[in-house]
Amino acid sequence: MIEQCSMPEGWEGPQDDKEYVGFATLPNQVHRKSVKKGFDFTLMVAGESGLGKSTLVNSLFLTDMYRDRRLLSAEERITQTVEITKHVVDIEEKGVKLRLTIVDTPGFGDAVNNTECWKPVADYIDQQFEQYFRDESGLNRKNIQDNRVHCCLYFISPFGHGLRPLDVEFMRALHQRVNIVPILAKADTLTPSEVERKKGKIREEIERYGIRIYQFPECDSDEDEDFKLQDQALKESIPFAVIGSNTVVEAKGRRVRGRLYPWGIVEVENPAHCDFVKLRTMLVKTHMQDLKDVTRETHYENYRAQCIQSMTRMVVKERNRNKLTRESGTDFPIPAIPAVPDSETEKLIREKDEEVSARAGACVSCQGLHQSHSRMWEAWLELRAALSPTPCMQLCWAIVPSLSMAAHAACSRA
């Protein structure tokens, strides 16, 4: 039974609902806190040079991320290796702050031999996971900076009959590390029918080679029909056929971003011309948070689980080794012998050498005495054999051998 408590005088509760508590404002509290803190998003763009990666990024976020970029000459591009460059820009829209990080991969796919050219990209993603894991496992976890890659836009060349071997190997190497969104670049070089055939071919090969690209979440049953139709249109647009342009042209009395050709104008933000609007809607308006959630809950958790398993195996191995060491009786460490002896050690060694030399000299003198007694004993035996024994001589013969044998034994012991 709930007892009613008296409220202070002057307090006025809600007039419509007397049982109102106030936790319904929690979403507003979370919203205010999140807006105050701001948001982070890291986007990687990959693909060979000349497919419009930089132009598309500038078109997506209405900013110039590559104003200081220098185009390489043909000779420089021959020796160029895959690099990782990072551009950070702070964007604010209607009071909401976004810290956008663009990770570019210049030199990817431009060499004659592209064997494992995707390895620097995979290593970079793993390094960001490792850094976040270290920060998360540290003592101060208040201001952890999240540099994990949340999405990778992979640009596919419009020239060809589908995916190239390099495209397949790249996506298979990274699909367990990052959310891959395939992009059909330079869609204005293809007719509408060619675009549809190209998309179908790419989707078929992605499924055939077991490549797991980013999967759109299923809509909830309580979502409105417009959102469900929009989500279905986004799923059917994979891979997104896009056109990028930072040039403003005149089209039917309107100034739009697009490309001017002798036969007409291609508008970047016209859904009838390309999928740029759908890509921007998916990437920014509807699925940015889901991309971050999948990165945290799937890709990063897989990496974290592997790290913990590896650390556990190392601890178990070390524990077993220590157990075997204790059982073998070599638990105490053997003192190490210094490479250069000190003065006390040299003095002790010199004294031991002198003692050994003295013992050796004593042994030599004892050996000489032993040989002398042996010669005397032999001479006595010869003399005894030559003389006729008398009672007095028999007494001497009984005494002398005992003395000689005692002296001989003493020399032998020495």
Helix and strand pattern: HEHHEEHEHEHHEEEEHHHH
Number of helical stretches of at least 4 residues? 11
Q: Which percent bin holds the helix content?
A: 40-55%
Kindly report how far apart the N and C termini lie: 107 Å
Work out the radius of gyration.
Answer: 45 Å
Mean pLDDT across residues: 78
What is the topology, as strand order, of the major beta sheet?
A: 2-3-1-4-5-6
* Model regions low in confidence, pLDDT < 50 over at least 5 residues: none
Determine the strand fraction and express it as a percent band.
5-15%
Overview of this protein structure:
The strands form two sheets. Strands 2-3-1-4-5-6 form a six-stranded mixed sheet, sandwiched between helices. A three-stranded antiparallel sheet has the order 7-8-9, with no helix packed on it. It has 414 residues and is an alpha/beta fold. 21% of the residues are buried. The longest helix has 44 residues, at 343-386. The N and C termini lie far apart (107 Å). It is elongated. The chain contains eleven helices and nine strands. The chain has helices at 26-37, 53-61, 74-78, 119-137, 165-174, 192-208, 225-236, 276-286, 288-327, 343-386, 391-413, and strands at residues 39-46, 85-93, 96-104, 151-156, 180-184, 240-241, 248-251, 254-261, 264-267. Helix 8 crosses helix 9 and helix 10 (343-386) packs antiparallel against helix 11 (391-413). The model has no long low-confidence stretch (mean pLDDT 78). Residues 37-310 form the Septin-type G domain. Keywords: Cell cycle, Cell division, Cytoplasm, GTP-binding, Nucleotide-binding. Its main location: cytoplasm.
